[in-house]
Amino acid sequence: KRYVYAGIALAISLVTFIAQTESAGYLANTLNYKKPIFTLYLTHCSWVLLWPAQLAFLRIKKRRVSFSVFWSRHIYQLRTTALSVVDAQSVPLSSLRPLAALPAKEQDRVIFRYMLKSCLICCLALNVAGSSWYIAVNLTTPSDLTAIYNCSAFFAYSFSVLLLGEKVHKDKIFSVILAIIGVIIVAYTGGSDKSSNTSDFPYRTLGNAIIGVGSVLYGLYEVLYKKLACPPQNVSPRKQAIFANAVGSIIGFLNMILLWVLLPVLHLTGLERFELPEGEVTYMIILTVLSNAIFSGSFLVLLSLTSPVISSVAALITIFLVAIVDWLLFGTSIGFGGFIGGIVIVIAFGLLTYTSWQELN
């Protein structure tokens, strides 16, 4: 079932990422609505909807069970899964007694403190990484931006070795490097920079440095989530998937109460004037936000059930898929380099998946 759930999560994440990319591009380029930090705030806050939406879905499936019984079972399941997460981390306690031997209220306090701290760490890494993209997009070329940011797959593997104790496997290293080569081929043969020269981007070096930091932090975010907030592998795939969306809602809530501070600061300094969207812009923002929420929830499930390395390389496939959708819907030429780069990424993902499967067996 683990691989069935992972396959479903991968399919959903690919489709919703394409929807998010296309709607965000239409919003910025066609409707000329360029409020990147406000859009970032809305999309990351939308994560708070993951747990309520999941709860509603589960309730529909279990509609013949009384709500009180359904609710108590659901909370018990989340609590026991969280307990397994805390136990797996060997969180030091003031008491010498094991966590399972503590009174229920004390267990709840330990679980609450641990999950809040873990989600806060993931929240900070995620938002600094995300903000770096929006800052660098005006400083460097689109090709540099794409190539450097997607090197997060390499950093995800590096941090997996350092923090998760993953073994160094030559086939995995080759797969990750091959995927990054595919991204570079797509980025630098797509023609996005042909009309640009050095004078157009006087702060290109600074922009590349900023997006480089973002690439490292995004790889770190994926590994930190896997290390700090994922249940151990002996927990059933269904419970892992349910818990992943609950954790996503906590991160969304933290985004909501922490990131709003940026909006008045940016408005007062004139860096990004706050304006409520109207008309078609409103509908496209809703589509972008909902697509991101579904993508993020499915991606967290994929992270929980597989590994940061597989999830990172899988995310690179969207580069090729977005190009195909642009070609089908808008007649945008993919180009020979873009096609070859996309095939290289797909081959790299297939090789990585096969290697991981062999390793598990």
TrEMBL record:
Q: Name one GO cellular component term.
A: membrane
Q: Please report the stretch or stretches of sequence annotated as the EamA domain.
A: 117-187
Alphabetical UniProt keywords: Membrane, Transmembrane, Transmembrane helix
Known PANTHER family for this protein? SUGAR PHOSPHATE TRANSPORTER DOMAIN-CONTAINING PROTEIN (PTHR19346)
Q: Which InterPro entries match?
A: EamA_dom, EmrE-like, Solute_c_fam_35_mem_F3/F4
Among Pfam families, the record links this protein to: EamA
**Which parts pass through the membrane?**
37-58, 114-135, 147-165, 172-189, 201-221, 242-263, 283-302, 309-330, 336-357
Q: What name has this protein been given in UniProt?
A: EamA domain-containing protein
Origin: domain of life: Eukaryota
